[in-house]
Amino acid sequence: MIYLFDENVIINFFKLYPKEVFSKLHDDIQKIIDEGRIFCVDSMFDNLSSKNKDDEMQKFLKQNKEIFLEPTEAEFKFIKELFIKQHYRERLITNADVLATKSDISDPYLVAKSHLENHTLVTDEKRTKMPWVCEKFNIKCIDRLNFFVEENLKY
């Protein structure tokens, strides 16, 4: 199974599971990445690099830059169709100004990529946001802990 991680999953992972305490978990996540089964979208890379000063996260980002994928033309088209419906747009973008920047547009790209490539989206968002949109498009969407269960990451 291929997973697309939301930015909050990466942030929470480093905040809640520091490598010095959960080194085996970090190794197991890296193994899944090396197998080509965890990806993110490129708009998240700059956000994570600039907002978070955690040394382990910075090392992770530099080591795994290739998992941050650029959107495709098909994804742009899907997002355009998605944004025609206000109720989808409002659940994915909370600030109209972000559309003019790259600062917080990851959610629509994650939904589009998950939908078009049949990947599982992993997010810690509440059900009223991205998981709600995923449900409407039959996209498998799980939280961080369910990802651990699916990958049998037990310690």
Hey, roughly how much beta strand do the residues contain? Answer: 5-15%
Supply the helix-strand structural class: alpha/beta
What is the fourth-level CATH superfamily?
5'-nuclease
Strand arrangement across the biggest beta sheet: 3-2-1-4-5
Instruction: Summarize the main sheet.
Output: 5 strands, parallel
- How many β-strand runs? 5
Could you tell me how far the N terminus lies from the C terminus, measured between alpha carbons in angstroms? 21 Å
Query: What is the overall silhouette?
Result: globular
Radius of gyration: 15 Å
Q: What is the overall number of helices? A: 9
What value does the average pLDDT take? 87
CATH architecture: 3-Layer(aba) Sandwich
> What percent of the residues sit in helical stretches (DSSP H or I)?
55-70%
User: How many structural domains are formed by the residues?
Assistant: 1
Question: What are the defining features of this structure?
Answer:
alpha/beta, Rossmann fold, five-stranded parallel beta sheet, 155 residues
Account of the 3D structure:
By secondary structure, this protein is α/β, with parallel strands linked by helices. Helices cover 55% and strands 9% of the residues. It has a five-stranded parallel sheet with strand order 3-2-1-4-5. The longest helix has 12 residues, at 23-34.
In short:
With 155 residues, the protein is of the alpha/beta class. The protein has helices at residues 7-16, 23-34, 42-51, 55-63, 73-84, 86-92, 106-117, 130-136, 144-150, and strands at 3-5, 38-41, 68-69, 120-122, 141-142. Helix 8 (130-136) links the parallel strand 4 (120-122) and strand 5 (141-142).
